[in-house]
Amino acid sequence: MLNSLRLKPKAERRLKSGHVWVYSNEVDITATPLKGMTAGDQVVIEAANGKPLGVAILSPEQLICARLISRDPRQILDASLLVHRLQVALSSRDLWYPHQCYRWVYGDSDGLPGLVIDRFGDVVVAQISSAAMEHMREDIVNAIHKVAAPKAIVLKNDGKLRAVEGLEEYVEVVHGALEDDCAPLIENDTRFMAPVIHGQKTGWFYDHRENRAQLNRIVKGKRVLDVFSYVGGWGVQAANHGASEVHCVDASAQALDWVEQNAALNGVEDKLHCWEGDAFAALKQLRDSGERFDIVVVDPPAFIPRRKDIKAGELAYRRLNQLAMRLLTKDGIIVSGSCSMHLGDDRLPDILRLVGRELDREVMIQHVGSQGADHPVLPAIPETRYLKAVFARVLPTR
């Protein structure tokens, strides 16, 4: 028998509209105190009148204190439901990506909050960020075995959200073995080795796949700059699709080593040039050196991790894009990315407009992209749509 978590009057409206999050200030703590409840427990969410709304997993110390996993108050998250949801998610991804390289599970969007799974063919990397999913660790590994039978499974549990849930960080190969701590993948006809043990997050960022495909259409014969390059997702693909020259900038020497290795995998190492250092400083140095590029890609980490960071984050995006735009040829293209959920959809195009006015350049937006099909968006949960990519042609003022 599950405990209950009762909501204040009218607080159930968002859940009824399709959302799955419960905020701590929506809970009737007189009827059902959050204090004393344990992170990872499953509870029945009740409306103020006592009507059950579904089952949720608890994070009582967080602002989002519960996340719905079923609208059936009798359906708990167990090994059977876990297998079913992995199967549904897998069929969705295989429909779009035949190489079996994709984000297999995208948390709330796949009914598995606190769990991310990336697939690299026969290697599967899972990242657990909630106490509820950590309690089900063995069930998750067994379900991955049952549904996909991979040769290797990695638990990459070193994300920042684990500390909030009071969970220890660890990285462990729980099944099989890896070659050089990496996993092979193919994206947009380009080969990579993703550093799934020592790299960022799961080792790869599948979310920009469709945006990189758009870039690949226009790079032939172009001189390209890839800023915040990480392991070369944008830059190596650009070189592989006909760019005449690609420069990659990253603060990590290790990341640039991986860029060079991935370039060699595709036989384009002669086109690649790596610059180690802070992105803002590197852009200034390139400008001072008289460098110019036909295409500049800026794909930074999230400058707005929390809502209160919006003002400072927008200033950082503006500064970054101004530095990037100064490096363009007279008729160049900027590809400006953001993975900040709290940056409004209209803000990045407007930032480019403002930067263009400051530099006396004409900005013409030609394409606006978002995340791929393996990061599905739930229409009632705008937070599941976070990625932006704006492709803009930058011309002299007419």
Q: If you had to describe this structure to a student in words, what would you say it looks like?
A:
By secondary structure, the chain is of the alpha/beta class. It folds into 3 domains: 3-70, Archaeosine Trna-guanine Transglycosylase, Chain: A, domain 4; 79-180, RNA methyltransferase domain (HRMD) like (Transcription Regulator spoIIAA); 205-396, Rossmann fold (3-Layer(aba) Sandwich), CATH 3.40.50.150. It is built from 11 helices and 19 strands. It has helices at residues 13-16, 79-96, 131-135, 137-148, 161-164, 209-216, 235-240, 253-265, 279-288, 310-325, 347-358; strands spanning 3-6, 21-23, 42-46, 52-58, 64-70, 101-106, 115-120, 123-128, 152-157, 170-175, 183-187, 190-194, 223-227, 245-250, 272-276, 293-298, 328-338, 361-369, 388-396. The chain has a 7-stranded mixed sheet with strand order 15-14-13-16-17-19-18, with helices on both faces. Helix 7 links the parallel strand 13 (223-227) and strand 14. Helix 2 (79-96) packs across helix 4 (137-148). It is globular. The model has no long low-confidence stretch (mean pLDDT 96).
